[in-house]
Amino acid sequence: MAAKGAPHRAAATRTRRVLEARLGDRVLVRVQDPVTLGDLSEPEPEPDVSVVRRGSPQG
């Protein structure tokens, strides 16, 4: 896997800010956190950005 340098972190941060501004409190925007997908995810994937519905097991 490629290293996560400054441009990568900046892009993830900008993406998070845009999503939070547009979606508000309806969702939780997570950056580089593990995501549980039920029994199908061993090991848990760590996407750059994930949008999670508030009130879900992930949010």
What is the strand tally?
2
Outline type: flat
Put simply, the count of helices is 1
Order of helices and strands: HEE
- Unreliable runs, pLDDT <50, ≥5 residues? none
**What is the count of distinct domains?**
1
Tell me the strand order in the biggest sheet.
1-2
Please describe the biggest sheet, giving its number of strands, its sense, and whether it closes into a barrel: 2 strands, antiparallel
**Taking all residues together, what is the mean pLDDT?**
84
* Separation, N- and C-terminal Cα atoms: 27 Å
Structural class: alpha+beta
Strand content range: 15-25%
Radius of gyration: 13 Å
Can you put this structure into words, describing what you see?
- The chain has 59 residues and is an alpha+beta fold.
- The chain has one domain (6-53).
- Helices cover 31% and strands 17% of the residues.
- The protein has one helix and two strands; from the N terminus they run αββ.
- It has a two-stranded antiparallel ribbon with strand order 1-2.
- The longest helix has 18 residues, at 6-23.
- The relative contact order is 0.22.
What is the topology?
Elements: H1 6-23, E1 27-31, E2 49-53
Antiparallel strand pairs: 1-2
Nutshell version of this structure?
With 59 residues, the protein is an alpha+beta fold. Helices cover 31% and strands 17% of the residues. It starts with 5 loop residues before the first helix and ends in a 6-residue tail after the last strand.
For this entry, give a set of tags.
59 residues; alpha+beta; two-stranded antiparallel ribbon; flat
